[in-house]
Write a structure and sequence with these properties.
alpha+beta; seven-stranded mixed sheet; 2 helices; 7 strands; about 45% strand
């Protein structure tokens, strides 16, 4: 299970996301537009595994998680940024293993083709040792 999948599962039951709609990045189907409430998609931008010398059963996993926040275009950029801030803080609170080592937020952009403002948040994660197929 990736960090993004774990955070998505936790967000579904977290009160901080009660006014938002968490979705998995690999979700199939179309999102309903106009958006009634902010959407937060959880995905993995980068994942790399390497073998640990002398231990053929374990792998070092490097990962970058991405949370995309989308809000209705009837709102504004400030609302989009505020939602992104709340999402970033909520995800850091859900990170009980303290894997997040960096957070970067891209510029909020208006997407006319789908009628929303969206912003991307990247979470750099500490490497972990994964045994076998865990």
């Amino acid at each position: 299970m990736t960090f993004a999948e774990d955070m998505y599962a936790r967000a579904l039951n977290d009160p901080a996301f009660s006014e938002m709609k968490p979705v998995a990045d690999k979700r199939t189907g179309e999102l309903p537009f106009p958006l009634e409430k902010p959407y937060v998609s959880f995905g993995t931008e980068y994942e790399d595994c390497g073998c640990l010398l002398g231990n053929g059963k374990s792998m070092i996993v490097r990962e970058v998680m991405v949370a995309n926040v989308a809000v209705n275009e009837e709102t504004d950029e400030n609302y989009c940024r505020e939602c992104a801030r709340n999402v970033a803080l909520a995800i850091m609170n859900l990170d009980t293993a303290k894997r997040i080592i960096s957070v970067s937020v891209e510029k909020c952009e208006h997407n006319e083709s789908i009628g929303c403002y969206n912003i991307k948040i990247k979470f750099g994660l500490r490497e972990i040792l994964r045994n076998g197929g865990d």
